[in-house]
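My hope is that you will study the record closing this message with an eye to the fold:
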Amino acid sequence: MADFGGTDTVAAQSLTQSAQEKLRQLVARIEKLEEEKKSIADDVKETYAEAKAMGFDTKVLRQVVRFRKQDRQEREEQEMVRDLYLHALGEI
């Protein structure tokens, strides 16, 4: 990471014109991505609301989505450990 100086005013003065422009571009990209992320999060929220309106259990639906993201072997290992813990607690 580049060192652009200590204080804000010194740092701004020590940045070359090229570095300032690159910084502006990076900030603009980050802001655009943050807007897109919020939009996608809103879309996901609306989709869960639609599923709920259709009578689906959104808590379980979220578990299904999380479950499908996992690798099969990782999922099986977690299930084995979960079952071990539940058995130790007398739950199963």
Q: What stands out?
A: The helical segments are 8-14, 17-53, 58-69, 72-88.
